[in-house]
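User: Can you predict the 3D structure of (Atlantic silverside) hypothetical protein? Sequence below.
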Amino acid sequence: MQTETRLNEKNGAQGSTVGMRQQEGPGGLWDSMKKAAVIIGSGILFLAAFGNSLTWHLQRFWGASGDFWQNLWTKVYLAFEGHDTALFFLGTTLFPTLAFWGSNALLLLVDTTGKPSFITRYRIQEDKNNPVDPVKLRHAVKTVAFNHVFISGPMVVAVYYLMTWRGNPCGPELPTFHWGLMELAVFSIVEEILFYYSHRLFHHPSLYKHFHKQHHEWTAPIGLVSIYAHPLEHVLSNTLPVVIGPVLLGSHVTTTTMWYCMALISTTISHCGYHLPFLPSPEFHDFHHLRFNQCFGVFGVLDRLHGTDSKFRQTKQYERHTLLTGLTPLTQTIPDTPKKGQ
Ligand SMILES: [Zn+2]
Ligand SMILES: [Zn+2]
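Assistant: Sure. Here are the predicted C-alpha cells for (Atlantic silverside) hypothetical protein:
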C-alpha cells in the first residue's frame, strides 16, 4: 500500500507535466488560457443577458421574505452601530467556523465509528477509512486547526482592510436578490480560475514535494482533509481563491459570509468520501486524491478545457459523477468492472 502510494505520488507530480505537454500541443498553456477567457467571457455575457428573466422567477419566491431579511439586518446593524470591525469579524469568522466544524463533527462521527451503515453504504472508496486511522486523524486535526486559526484568521483581518479601502462592507442596506446571485456567480468563476491554476502549479514536480504532497497523504480523503495542507498552499490555493471575489466586487458582509460558508461546506463535501443523496457529487475531487494527475479544478470547467479530466472521463467514477436522486448507492447501480481473475 505504502509503495503503491509513493508510486502514485511520483506519477502524480511528474505525470501531470508530461500530460501538460502532450495535451496542449504547440499553442501550450497560453492558447488554452485564451480559450478559457473566451468561454468565461461568453458565460458572463449570457448571465448579463438572461440573468434577469432567470432570476425573476426565483425572486417571486423571495417576495415578501426580502423585507424579513432586511429588517433582521437593520436590527443587527443598529445593535453594532459604530462597531463595523467587530461586526465584520464576527460574521466572517463565526458562521464559517460553525459551518465547517459543525459539518465535519458529524462526518467525523461516521468516520471514526464506521456507523451508521445508512451513511457508510455511500462510501466512494469502499474499503478505505473503515474506520479512519486514529493516529493519522489526530495529526490532521492539529494541522487543520492550525490553518484555520493562524492562517485563515489573519487573512480575514487583511481582507477586512482591503474591503474597507474598496468600500463599506457593513452598509445599512442589504444587496438586492439579483445582485447577490450575480455576486455568487462571479465568486465561483474567480474561485475556479484561481484554484485550478494555483493547484496545478503546486503539482509541478519542483513544488509538489515541498508543499502539496502533504494534502495528498490522504489518497482516500475525509471532510476535514479539505484544509489539511502546507501553510503556503493553504494561503495561495485554499484561501485566496475564495476571499478575492468579495474584495473585487466590494461585497457586503452578509454575501461575503454566505460565500465563505458555501465554499467551506462545498470543499468539505468534495473531500468527505461519501457520495450522499441530494448533495453535490464528490467523485471529481475524490478521483484527484486517488490518481493525483487528473481533476484539478472545483467545477471541472477548466479541466475539460485543458484535457486534465481525460482519464477521469473513462472511469466508473465519471459515470457516477452526478447528483444522486435516489437512495441506492451509485457503487451498486454502477458497479466497478470485476478485475481479471475474479
Ligand atoms: Zn483535496
Ligand atoms: Zn492536488
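Residues 13 and 209 are 8 Å apart (CA to CA). Residues 28-62 form the longest helix (35 residues).
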